[in-house]
Specification:
single chain; mainly alpha; Endonuclease Iii, domain 2; 2 domains; 60% helix; binds iron/sulfur cluster
Length: 235
């Protein structure tokens, strides 16, 4: 493969981005993705268990993370971040605990259904792998994010941020529906690398790669084709 072609391939960009994310692990951590040991639950906003990650994935929809963290802390102190304890509560009891989050009634119903279903599996990992997919409120992004951050499966979560950042950096249009296969074909199947890469993409999406990108403060600006060539690609 010639040098020019090599430099334009997605694997080249993935490798460069991974190094940049590693160098900027402090920024990624400050933005809520606690770069940790590969199997630590702390990656997900510093939470203390896989069960808390699953519960927060329902609570966070259309709600600020700070509010979710407060509710989780309250649930933790009362023992309700244990899935089996949560499953023993009525919908109204769950509602009274999570009332601070938006759409709390819908989420109380979903959380109860999730907790009851999860209690049927011998391990949380098996629940995430086999029982989570068809539950109400679990879209593709949430499912694959939980597979990675709870199930510790090297499957890459598709996200709008991933689509936008990858498309702009490589100058190749990568829709959300192709993010997963694109990364999985170009990134070594390594749990730490998968978690870091997803965290890095979301961090860049949330801090600088807005609809109107703020490239000047972006950690990827040195390698980003849109920034370097002023290309007109807008995703
Ligand atoms: S340099 Fe600009 S376009 Fe490229 S990823 Fe960063 S913010 Fe997005």
């Amino acid at each position: 493969m010639g040098r020019g072609r090599e430099n334009s391939s997605i694997s080249y960009y993935v490798e460069r981005m991974l190094s940049i994310f590693l160098e900027n692990r402090q920024l990624i951590t400050e933005k809520g993705w606690i770069v940790s040991d590969p199997e630590s639950p702390r990656w997900w906003g510093g939470l203390e268990s896989y069960e808390e990650i699953i519960i927060s994935s329902i609570l966070v929809q259309m709600t600020r993370w700070e509010t979710v963290a407060e509710v989780i802390e309250n649930m933790r102190q009362r023992g309700y971040t244990n899935i089996r304890s949560l499953a023993s509560l009525s919908e109204d009891e769950i509602l009274s605990i999570i009332r601070k989050v938006n759409f709390s009634r819908t989420k109380a119903k979903r959380l109860r259904a999730l907790a009851i279903e999860a209690s049927k599996y011998p391990t949380l990992k098996e629940f995430v792998k086999y029982g989570l997919r068809d539950l109400e409120g679990i879209g593709d992004e949430t499912y694959y994010s939980l597979l990675l951050f709870v199930g510790n499966e090297t499957q890459f979560p598709p996200s709008e941020y991933g689509s936008r950042v990858m498309s702009r950096v490589t100058s190749m249009r990568i829709p959300k529906s192709r993010v997963r296969e694109t990364i999985e074909s170009n990134l070594e199947r390594d749990l730490f690398k998968y978690k870091l890469f997803h965290s890095g993409l979301v961090t860049v999406g949330r801090t600088s790669c807005f609809k109107e990108p703020k490239c000047g403060k972006c950690i990827l600006k040195m390698i980003c084709k849109l920034n370097n060539n002023n290309e007109a690609l807008r995703i």
